[in-house]
Task: inverse folding
């Protein structure tokens, strides 16, 4: 077995991603076919930039989904003789049924760089969108009343938001994401507060809309509370009796910190948009027919702020990915075995001058994902402004 | 105007107090102190002796009191042990217990002693800030003019080819965090086995093994183009993309304003429309952005100094955090928070100053 | 330029066609447009929004943006074709030979440049004048546009001036190099009427003084009559009629022009005896224009097979003064016949008192200074307001910006609570009850119709859903089905097709949105409806339809309508009683006849005179007020109107500057808040005289 040339590495990598290509082609064909009926999502397919971004993002999403089919080796397995092996190295002791090469070489512990990169996508795409979503829930739940009511509430909330924003992120991480913090149990309390917001948000959302029809209201609010509190008990306190919802304490700490860092930014955007939209006549119309403030905020104002919020959501997932990478880069919080991109870059940088590939591969992966998200956001912004 | 500045100063002071208190709490958590006790005392201490150590070294008492001591508004702790030796916050080898002042917090200039560097915090901090100062200066000199130029050029004719190319570049750089661009730069220019350097070496264009140095350790003594370019570019790149995009957005918005049309239809040439009418209005927003970039630049500094092994502020921060060096970490936080707050203040005042609509109303 | 013969037109547009290109299709904006402007002549371009009038102006400036392109025809300026000029030639003509004035004065001035610099730039570019000379000229022109204290003004920034002053600066800027042609694009639309009158006077005087030709674009026929010699009526991208003002106004030869005049409230129109006739249907979208005559589908004289056979040419009308019409049937139509569709309606009897306000006061306290410091200031938005409104009555509240009419509406609706005084609604005091604490009945019986049709509906909720939500909140009906049925009935009520229930607001035109707004307001069977300028943002032909709809619903439900407006023409047309407000004070109140005939409050007199009327039989006394409306933050001492009042000298002893005038009760319950003695008031002459027809 000899070393692969650059060309055949390239071809083999492309081939290895086959489930992703099929999924991508299917998605694009369907979307193109019905693009006039799909609203903003459909209009995305009018913008080359947006399409390119969407394709990049979906590439990684599908990679994360089909990671098990794509990887060539166990991302944690160390094969002898492949320490810092160059891309395309063959296995020293070929095993029956095992993939005979390390496509992107081996890292300093002789693990397959390619498979770690693919599995890393799964790690990153598990945490980043979820953390961003929670940050949006918190930011929206606080930004709406701050912008709508103004006054003292706004002053206090804005002050707190500015405090968090004034912290250099890296410093905050060094203070929040430490084993000592996990020992004190502070992250659990953080989680207890932050994870409450989605439940509150949905409860208020349904109640304000359906309070005129108690049966419907009870159904929606009841379902929210049952599912929400179940998940809440598991995620925040690890008390879910069924064990469906749980989170590793280290991961919880990382997650909570990332939500905490992102929320003030969302808060500021929402607050600004509310202040703008609340001067509209349809808001006044809601007020003059006696709607409650939360109905107006959640059903009259929020849907009309969705354009910029969706754009910011995309950008913020990218930002969160970068933050998670930063955490990994400094070896904070996540387990040392973890194949997430930040940690792999950190592992690889020590021998960067001699063996750049273990760091370069995850670096380029992370860059392309964030680039895709940025392009997607750009395309969405352009298209939503176009009407 | 002066009232406005005063109010902002007051607010800034309040924020500084709250933030430093938060940092103080987070660095003086019980587990941190226990860890400190083990590293300062002995690893095999019993739980009881750890508790004693903590109290005897002034880490007992309420968080607020300790914060007050650190700040210098509450008298420093003293402890007299069984042998009659008095130790205390304000007592050291040079200052005997009898002559020690009552207050010795950071307000009195006492930043404490770094347990990791084994020297006073101020000494270490001053040296590392000096290193970082040069780095930041170089970054600013590269980043600000480049990004503004790129932003203005792409924003003045929205949708043109220049705009598309420059925007693509800007988006790509904002997608590249420092730890990615740093790795790429080193692989491309600073690696003896990959990228350009082996080729250049082979062709005999460069004498050394690499084009640029992959570490900036030597830049601490003597900054040269070859050892400083990669770290500076790494930090600047992300900021360039970000500020350029802001400038572009601001510029395109200004270019669609009515008064730009007025100017055009007055017969003002395109050059002057941009230079005289658009630029000033378009640069108000990026100014704020540049100032608010500082917290992020600090991020970049920490990453780059770690990556390039440049012993500046960021490197110190990482070492302090990694080695549970509480005083050092606190001092670093104070500096970081201070820098951020000051830039925010400048940004606020500058915004008002640049904008006649607000200044004169 | 020297070879241009001054007896030839200064601007000649020949068969101009302009299109905008979007990703999906080409949208023709202007088709086959021709007109000419002679030296010293003022040409009016009139039409509803979207008819292409501003596009023509921008084409003359060759500033159509990235997507707009001239697809045919020529634009000759002093004999030279503008459409073929390169950028450099255009640059030399722009600002020096052709200048333009825009709708939004604030937006058209650079916020970061001093006024003087913006003015001086023009001669510095075009005549190569030195900076000092240019600034001196700027100062002189600023004085020319009748701005006080020019030295201060040229050193000021735009935001330091009021809207009227800014527009004068924009005019000054256009005049800096004495252009041969001035294009004015809705120059007064953003201004208050009394300020508008001053600007119109100024434009006319300057046009005469400098001999400048003008292309005056407006949707307001009255304004066109005041300013222009000739006009061109546009409809859906085409010129439909052109001629001199008198011929077009009195002997129109196009059905659209005729319909337009019949739909605007001129003196003499009356909601019961002579109601307005709205133009049926809607303005065609640019890519859905019908074959043949664009106006065909909405025209009373439409003949199948003739009007929609082929594109209609513009034809000269013999015996006219360059009068032409784009109608194939103009020779056959009996232009003097009275309109067939006019149905006189019965007057609604007025019932018992529904709403009574006594000594209502609303003060706001705001912090002075931009940086949050400084002493708190009190803004008196409403000062001792007392009136009553009866069932089935229309009470108009008239005033310009800052007069407190919107605050009054907010207080009545319960969005704000009054500082003092009482509001009796069906004998219940709601003065200090904010809307959250009012019961559902009270809330549903007082509703509001809003001004801006593009803002009145939630853009992300379907039309039906929004009406049903109102029904839900008013606790109407027991089931979803009942509410659904009621919603469809409401759509019928406002004469919208039931299919609109599933549409999103962006699929509706302005008038249709306003109808949905009305349906929503009447969802809970409102007894009192506050209509805040409900038609001012709509095109004239749609205005009539929406007003009539309001009147019809009022007749049926015996609703009390509080009609807030700045437009006296429409107020005279539909209201029973009128209340005139100025800076938070009611300065005059009485029946419509009382307010519109002498004696007037001096402000009412000026307001009446300021409103342009598109009727050649009407003569108006010109009263142009000095200066702008004072800020409500800083009202003048004594009578609020004393800074601009032309009758002030008739009151002895400077009383106006010291004391708030008392309310004088004249005969028939007519109230005037003025120091003028009844003898002086009796000498007032009517502002508007209608010549016998």
Result:
């Amino acid at each position: 077995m000899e070393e692969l040339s650059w060309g055949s590495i390239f071809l083999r990598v492309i081939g290895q991603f086959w489930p992703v290509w099929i999924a991508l082609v299917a998605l694009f064909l369907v979307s193109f076919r019905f693009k006039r009926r799909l609203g903003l999502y459909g209009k995305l397919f009018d913008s080359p930039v947006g399409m390119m971004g969407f394709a990049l993002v979906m590439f990684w999403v599908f990679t994360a989904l089909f990671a098990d089919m794509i990887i060539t080796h166990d991302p944690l397995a160390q094969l002898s003789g492949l320490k810092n092996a160059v891309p395309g190295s063959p296995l020293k002791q070929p095993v029956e049924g095992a993939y005979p090469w390390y496509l992107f070489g081996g890292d300093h512990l002789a693990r397959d760089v390619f498979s770690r990169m693919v599995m890393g996508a799964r790690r990153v795409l598990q945490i980043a969108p979820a953390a961003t979503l929670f940050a949006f829930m918190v930011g929206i739940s606080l930004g709406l009343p701050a912008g709508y009511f103004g006054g003292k509430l706004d002053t206090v909330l804005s002050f707190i938001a500015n405090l968090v924003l004034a912290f250099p992120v890296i410093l905050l991480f060094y203070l929040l994401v430490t084993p000592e913090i996990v020992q004190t149990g502070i992250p659990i309390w953080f989680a207890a507060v932050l994870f409450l917001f989605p439940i509150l948000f949905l409860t208020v959302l349904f109640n304000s809309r359906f309070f005129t029809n108690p049966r419907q209201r009870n159904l929606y609010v009841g379902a929210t509370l049952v599912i929400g509190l179940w998940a809440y008990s598991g995620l925040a306190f690890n008390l879910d009796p069924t064990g469906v919802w749980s989170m590793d304490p280290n991961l919880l700490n990382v997650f909570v910190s990332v939500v905490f860092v992102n929320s003030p930014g969302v808060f500021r955007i929402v607050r600004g948009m509310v202040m703008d939209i609340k001067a509209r006549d349809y808001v006044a119309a809601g007020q003059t027919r006696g709607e409650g403030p939360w109905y107006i905020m959640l059903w009259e104002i929020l849907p009309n702020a969705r354009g910029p919020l969706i754009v910011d959501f995309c950008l913020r997932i990218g930002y969160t990915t970068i933050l998670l990478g930063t955490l990994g880069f400094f070896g904070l919080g996540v387990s040392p075995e973890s194949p997430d991109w930040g940690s792999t870059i950190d592992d690889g940088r020590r021998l960067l001058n001699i063996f750049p590939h273990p760091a370069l591969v995850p670096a380029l992966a992370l860059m392309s994902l964030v680039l895709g998200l940025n392009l997607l956001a750009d395309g969405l912004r352009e298209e939503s402004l176009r009407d | 105007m002066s009232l406005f500045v005063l109010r902002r100063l007051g607010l800034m002071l309040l924020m500084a107090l709250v933030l430093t208190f938060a940092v103080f709490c987070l660095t003086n958590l019980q587990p941190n102190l226990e860890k400190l006790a083990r590293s300062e005392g002995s690893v095999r201490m019993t739980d009881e002796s750890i508790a004693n150590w903590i109290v005897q070294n002034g880490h007992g008492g309420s968080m607020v009191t300790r914060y007050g001591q650190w700040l210098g508004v509450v008298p420093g702790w003293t402890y007299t042990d069984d042998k009659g030796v008095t130790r205390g916050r304000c007592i050291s080898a040079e200052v005997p217990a009898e002559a020690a002042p009552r207050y010795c917090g950071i307000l009195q200039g006492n930043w404490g002693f770094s347990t990791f560097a084994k020297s006073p915090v101020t000494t270490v901090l001053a040296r590392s800030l000096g290193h970082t100062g040069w780095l930041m200066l170089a970054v600013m000199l590269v980043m600000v003019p480049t990004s503004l130029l790129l932003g203005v050029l792409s924003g003045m004719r929205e949708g043109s080819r220049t705009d598309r190319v420059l925007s693509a570049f800007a988006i790509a750089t904002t997608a590249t965090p420092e730890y990615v661009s740093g790795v790429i730069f080193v692989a491309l220019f600073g690696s003896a086995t990959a990228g350009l350097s082996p080729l250049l070496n082979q062709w005999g264009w460069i004498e050394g093994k690499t084009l640029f140095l992959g570490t900036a350790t030597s830049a601490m003594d003597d900054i040269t183009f070859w050892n400083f370019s990669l770290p500076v570019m790494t930090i600047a790149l992300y900021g360039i993309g970000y500020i350029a995009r802001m400038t572009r957005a601001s510029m395109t918005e200004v270019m669609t304003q009515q008064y730009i049309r007025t100017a055009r239809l007055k017969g003002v040439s395109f050059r002057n429309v941009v230079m005289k009418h658009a630029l000033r209005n378009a640069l108000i927003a990026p100014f704020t952005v540049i100032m608010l970039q500082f917290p992020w630049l600090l991020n970049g500094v920490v990453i780059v100094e770690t990556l390039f092994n440049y012993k500046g502020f960021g490197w110190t921060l990482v070492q302090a955090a990694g080695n549970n060096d509480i005083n050092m970490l606190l001092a670093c936080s104070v500096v970081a928070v201070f820098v951020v707050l000051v830039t925010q203040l400048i940004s606020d005042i500058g915004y008002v100053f640049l904008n006649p609509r607000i200044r004169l109303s | 330029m020297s070879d241009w013969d001054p007896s030839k037109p200064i601007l000649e547009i020949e068969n101009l066609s302009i299109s905008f290109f979007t990703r999906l299709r080409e949208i023709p904006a202007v088709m086959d447009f021709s007109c000419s402007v002679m030296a010293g002549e003022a040409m009016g371009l009139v039409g509803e929004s979207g008819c292409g009038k501003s596009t023509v102006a921008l084409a003359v400036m060759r500033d159509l943006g990235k997507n707009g392109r001239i697809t045919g025809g020529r634009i000759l300026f002093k004999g030279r074709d503008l459409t073929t000029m390169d950028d450099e030639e255009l640059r030399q003509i722009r600002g020096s030979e052709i200048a333009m004035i825009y709708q939004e004065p604030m937006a058209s001035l650079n916020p970061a440049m001093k006024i003087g610099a913006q003015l001086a730039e023009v001669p510095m570019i075009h005549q190569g004048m030195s900076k000092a000379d240019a600034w001196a000229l700027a100062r002189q022109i600023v004085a020319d546009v009748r701005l006080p204290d020019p030295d201060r003004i040229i050193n000021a920034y735009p935001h330091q001036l009021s809207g009227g002053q800014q527009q004068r600066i924009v005019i000054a800027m256009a005049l800096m190099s004495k252009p041969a042609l001035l294009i004015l694009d809705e120059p007064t639309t953003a201004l208050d009427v009394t300020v508008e009158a001053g600007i119109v006077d100024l434009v006319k005087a300057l046009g005469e003084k400098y001999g400048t030709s003008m292309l005056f674009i407006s949707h307001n026929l009255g304004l066109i009559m005041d300013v222009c010699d000739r006009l061109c009526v546009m409809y859906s991208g085409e010129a439909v009629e052109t001629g001199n003002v008198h011929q077009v106004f009195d002997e129109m030869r196009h059905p659209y022009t005729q319909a337009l005049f019949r739909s605007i409230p001129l003196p003499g129109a009356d909601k019961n005896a002579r109601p307005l006739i709205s133009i049926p249907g809607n303005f065609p979208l640019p890519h859905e224009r019908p074959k043949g005559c664009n106006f065909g589908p909405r025209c009373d004289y439409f003949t199948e097979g003739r009007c929609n056979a082929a594109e209609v040419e513009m034809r000269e009308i013999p015996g006219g003064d360059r009068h032409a019409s784009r109608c194939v049937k103009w020779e056959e139509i009996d232009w003097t016949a009275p309109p067939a569709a006019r149905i006189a309606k019965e007057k609604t009897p007025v019932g018992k008192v529904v709403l009574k306000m006594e000594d209502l006061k609303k003060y706001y306290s705001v912090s002075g200074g931009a940086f949050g410091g400084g002493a708190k200031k009190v803004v008196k938005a409403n000062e001792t307001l007392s009136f009553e409104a009866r069932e089935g009555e229309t009470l108009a509240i008239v005033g310009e910006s800052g007069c407190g009419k919107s605050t009054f509406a907010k207080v009545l609706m319960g969005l704000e609570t009054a500082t003092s005084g009482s509001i009796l609604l069906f004998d219940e005091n709601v003065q200090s009850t904010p809307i959250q604490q009012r019961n559902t009945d009270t809330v549903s019986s007082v509703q509001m119709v809003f001004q801006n049709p593009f803002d009145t509906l939630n853009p992300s909720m379907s039309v039906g859903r929004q009406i049903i939500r109102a029904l839900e909140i008013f606790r109407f009906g027991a089931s979803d089905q009942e509410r659904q049925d009621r919603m469809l009935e409401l759509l019928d009520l406002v004469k919208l097709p039931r299919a609109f229930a599933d549409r999103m607001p962006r699929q509706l035109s302005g008038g249709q949105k306003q109808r949905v707004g009305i349906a929503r307001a009447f969802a809970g069977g409102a007894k009192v409806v506050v209509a805040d300028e409900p038609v001012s943002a709509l095109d004239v032909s749609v205005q009539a339809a929406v007003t009539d709809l309001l009147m019809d619903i009022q007749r049926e439900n015996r609703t009390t309508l509080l009609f807030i407006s700045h437009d006296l023409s429409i107020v005279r047309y539909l209201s029973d009683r009128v209340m005139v407000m100025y800076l938070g004070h009611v300065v005059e109140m009485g029946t419509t006849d009382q307010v519109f005939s002498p004696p007037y409050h001096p402000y009412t007199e000026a307001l009446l005179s300021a409103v342009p009327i598109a009727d050649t039989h009407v003569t108006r006394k010109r009263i142009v007020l000095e200066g702008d409306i004072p800020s409500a933050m800083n009202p003048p001492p004594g009578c609020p109107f004393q800074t601009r009042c032309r009758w002030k000298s008739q009151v002895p002893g400077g009383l106006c500057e010291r004391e708030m005038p008392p309310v004088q009760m004249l005969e028939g319950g007519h109230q005037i808040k003025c120091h003028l003695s009844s003898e002086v008031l009796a000498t007032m002459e009517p502002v508007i005289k209608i010549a016998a027809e």
About this structure: Residues 365 and 378 of chain C are 4 Å apart (CA to CA).
